Amino acid sequence: VDVDQMLEEEDREEAEDGEKEKMRQEQIAEQQRLAQKINISLDMSHVPEALRETEALAEKDKGNEAYYAKEFDEAQQYFTRSLALNKNDAAVWCNRALVRLKKGDTQEALNDCNESLKIDPNYSKAVHRRGKARFELGQYELALEDFQTVQKAMPDSQAVNFDLNQVRKRLGVKVEKKKIQICEGDSDDESAAVKK
């Protein structure tokens, strides 16, 4: 029996076990960090009035980052913190509405859109998201009105046009496509007539 070889094997096994334990501890620490992130305090009473707007923007930025990372619970908390500091930011209400739509909290999303529109009645994103919430809630006629309103402001938006077509299908509204027919005539453009 080679004692040196046995000791080397034991050292290797101990090193592997140590590495596994280190990885396990790192995983636990990461899980704890994530858990702390999700339990963000919503109490903003400690923020001085002079810093509230700056802090509100910082919370909004954190919410946007969390949203793009698909951390919807965390994003909602950051947007809520931002609103606790400044309730007059239509974009934050609208962003929180989007997060709530993603989470399936449709009625809350609708409420947030309405708050956003109280601040800025012409905010197209809020009207569009309100239409999405109304669609999900089965309020198809109201969703149609919202999508039509947004389409006037953003006629080339694929997302709006898609949503508009979806609600029209749900309502059984047929979309009549314009037929354009060019009458034959002289080859110059002035003599060609267009009929719709």
Overview of this protein structure:
It is a single chain. With 196 residues, the protein is mainly α. Helices cover 69% and strands 2% of the residues. A two-stranded antiparallel ribbon has the order 1-2. The termini are far apart. The model is unreliable at 176-196 (pLDDT under 50).
Task: Tag the structure with descriptive keywords.
69% helix; mainly alpha; 2% strand; 196 residues; single chain
Short description:
The protein is an all-alpha fold and 196 residues long. The chain has helices spanning 3-38, 52-68, 72-85, 90-103, 106-119, 124-136, 140-153, 158-171; strands at residues 181-182, 194-195. Mean pLDDT is 82; it is low at 176-196.
Beta-strand content estimate = under 5%
SSE pattern, N- to C-terminal: HHHHHHHHEE
Largest β sheet strand count, sense and barrel closure: 2 strands, antiparallel
The rounded Rg comes to: 28 Å
Overall form: elongated
- Overall pLDDT, averaged? 82
Strand order of the largest sheet: 1-2
Q: Give me the number of helical elements.
A: 8
Low-confidence stretches: 176-196
Give the helix/strand class: mainly alpha
Helical amount: 55-70%
> In angstroms, what separates the terminal alpha carbons?
98 Å
How many distinct beta strands?
A: 2
Compile the SSE list and pairings:
Elements lengths: L2 H36 L13 H17 L3 H14 L4 H14 L2 H14 L4 H13 L3 H14 L4 H14 L9 E2 L11 E2 L1
Antiparallel strand pairs: 1-2
Helix pairs in contact: 2-3, 3-4, 4-5, 4-6, 5-6, 6-7, 7-8
